[in-house]
């Protein structure tokens, strides 16, 4: 490769990254739903069709758990319309059995043509506020099959040769409670793809198709080399781990996800054989969702400056037996898969890799206690609030760093909504959103502190709660402590508040009702007795850790706001001998 080719690779790659980021900004600034314009629960990217299979070539920072799941949706769309694609076509799919994850995530794709051939595909994948079906908000803990999850949208065209298919558009909007949001959100996604199409056409006109494709090939090859270099540094062998989801919301408990990771030179094989059979409840993970969470796990073990594209997964093979919780067969419900068992999929892969390269793992996936609320505005239009403030927290530690921020790795592209805007958009008040001491996994590096979040609704509403991470909490790594248990307490105005153990559906909340989340922090990394005593002192001063926990868990003696090193050494030596 000569210098000119290297420069063109960087220019084309940077242009595609910029296009993906401009798509993201377009959706944020034009969408109606707070899920988009406040929480940023969507992902934008660009794919190519230069080979038989579509390839991810650029992606803007977004909801990380979407990272690779979009690939399956794009592949199914291209397979379905491979002989019927025309300039101006815009495609839509959400079906978990056609490349989707759960049916609340919708994917829109627009092929960009050059010399009458489809070359690049801007795409937007977004979590919608509602998906029809029996339950407002789409999360249905009583779901028995895929149809109970909500509207299934197989691969279809919503624009054909530049003309809007109004009948299809109307059908989709009519089957959604939040039609007053949905129409604007779809227009925002479509507008982002149209904007990207214009930018891509300009780029193709400037550099030509062959040069652009060659530059994309080179960039994907560069990412692949970097990832292979990482994997090659790991010792060859087969490493196994398993973890469990608490339940499937239908009475089945301790749902197993088992990962076997085989390192062979620069190749990685992740096999989920031995995982539980598909379950009755709506936690079954379609293969695209399973692959995406495996990708999240692998990507967190590699250098963060590696460009995100198809090259990341070329060295990795993911296999999962059909009919299992990680690769279900129709009509198993999948409505909660992007949280549960998605979190367990990433966790099992990271736990397996921790046997191989412990210093590479950490920032574990979330065990998300989901509690969403819905009601009706004064004008009669419905609203659904996912209560994002209650899901913050859960980020685990990694080698040489404590857990950071308010969202764990799988949600790092999601932003915390403005409290003020949230209170304008919903009849709600955020009464509390603060850290809680002694509520995270201890370690040489500890998880992010857990949170106490209280949300009050000023109008009548209904809340459904789906607990996770109560018995099987987020794991720590390398002799660290696991995270504590999550809690959700619902005060519906009766004398006694209700501490939800597993799930409760459509709890009627009067005006003034309060939902309280105790969102546990993440797991730790390394032996807590090896944590720097003065770092423990700082945690005590910041009220992340109590003086009692500093002594009992970390073996650090603190008196008069200072560390007694002599006593600390004695305590730690004694504890280590007893262990």
Automatic annotation (TrEMBL):
One of its GO terms (molecular function) is 5-oxoprolinase (ATP-hydrolyzing) activity. Residues 6-528 form the Hydantoinase B/oxoprolinase domain. Signal peptide: none annotated. GO terms for biological process: glutathione metabolic process. Pfam families: Hydantoinase_B. GO terms for cellular component: cytosol. InterPro entries: Hydantoinase_B, Oxoprolinase-like. This is Hydantoin utilization protein B. The lineage of its organism: Bacteria, Bacillati, Bacillota, Bacilli, Bacillales.
């Amino acid at each position: 490769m000569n210098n000119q080719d290297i420069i063109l690779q960087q220019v084309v790659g940077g242009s595609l990254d910029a296009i993906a980021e401009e798509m993201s900004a377009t959706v944020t600034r034009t969408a109606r739903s707070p899920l988009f314009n406040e929480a940023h629960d969507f992902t934008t990217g660009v794919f190519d069709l230069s080979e038989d299979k579509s390839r991810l070539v650029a992606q803007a920072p977004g909801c990380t758990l979407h990272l690779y799941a979009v690939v399956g949706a794009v592949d199914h769309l291209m397979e379905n319309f491979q002989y019927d694609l025309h300039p101006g076509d815009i495609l839509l799919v959400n079906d978990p059995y056609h490349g989707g994850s759960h049916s609340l995530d919708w994917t829109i794709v627009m092929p960009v043509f050059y010399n009458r051939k489809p070359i690049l595909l801007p795409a937007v994948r977004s979590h919608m506020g509602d998906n029809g079906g029996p339950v407002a908000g789409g999360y249905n803990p009583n779901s028995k099959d895929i149809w109970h999850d909500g509207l299934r949208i197989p691969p279809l065209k919503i624009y054909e040769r530049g003309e809007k298919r109004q009948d299809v558009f109307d059908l989709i909007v009519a089957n959604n409670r939040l039609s007053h949001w949905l129409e604007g959100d779809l227009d925002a996604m479509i507008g982002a793809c149209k904007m990207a199409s214009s930018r891509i056409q300009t780029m193709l006109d400037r550099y030509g198709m062959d040069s652009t494709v060659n530059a994309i090939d080179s960039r994907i090859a560069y990412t692949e080399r970097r990832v292979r270099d990482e994997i090659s540094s790991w010792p060859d062998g087969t490493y196994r781990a398993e973890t469990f989801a608490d339940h499937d919301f239908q009475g089945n408990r301790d749902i197993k996800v088992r990962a076997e990771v085989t390192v062979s030179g620069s190749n990685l094989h992740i096999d989920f054989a031995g995982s539980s059979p598909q379950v009755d409840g709506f936690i079954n993970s379609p293969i695209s969702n399973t692959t995406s969470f495996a990708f999240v796990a692998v990507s967190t073990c590699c250098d963060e400056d590696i460009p995100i594209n198809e090259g990341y997964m070329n060295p990795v093979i993911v296999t999962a037996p059909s009919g299992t919780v990680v690769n279900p067969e129709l009509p198993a419900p999948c409505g909660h898969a992007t949280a549960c068992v998605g979190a367990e999929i990433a966790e099992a892969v990271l736990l397996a890799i921790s046997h191989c390269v412990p210093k590479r793992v950490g920032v574990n996936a979330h065990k998300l206690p989901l509690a969403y609320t819905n009601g009706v505005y004064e004008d009669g239009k419905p609203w659904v609030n996912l209560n994002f403030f209650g899901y913050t927290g859960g980020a685990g530690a990694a080698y040489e760093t404590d857990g950071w921020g308010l969202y764990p790795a799988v949600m790092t592209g999601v932003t915390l909504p403005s409290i003020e805007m949230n209170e304008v958009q919903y009849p709600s008040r955020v009464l509390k959103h603060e850290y809680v001491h002694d509520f995270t996994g201890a370690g040489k590096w500890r998880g992010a502190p857990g949170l106490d979040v209280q949300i009050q609704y000023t109008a009548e509403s209904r809340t459904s709660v789906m607990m996770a991470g109560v018995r099987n909490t987020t794991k720590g790594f390398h002799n660290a402590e696991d995270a504590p248990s999550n809690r959700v307490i619902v005060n519906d105005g009766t004398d006694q508040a209700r501490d939800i153990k597993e799930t409760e559906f459509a709890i009627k909340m009067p005006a003034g009702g309060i939902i309280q989340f105790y969102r546990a922090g993440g797991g730790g990394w390394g032996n807590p007795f090896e944590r720097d005593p003065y770092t423990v002192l700082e945690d005590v001063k910041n009220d992340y850790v109590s003086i009692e926990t500093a002594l009992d868990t970390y073996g650090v003696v603190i008196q008069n706001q200072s560390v007694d090193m002599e006593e600390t050494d004695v305590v730690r030596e004694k504890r280590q001998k007893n262990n």
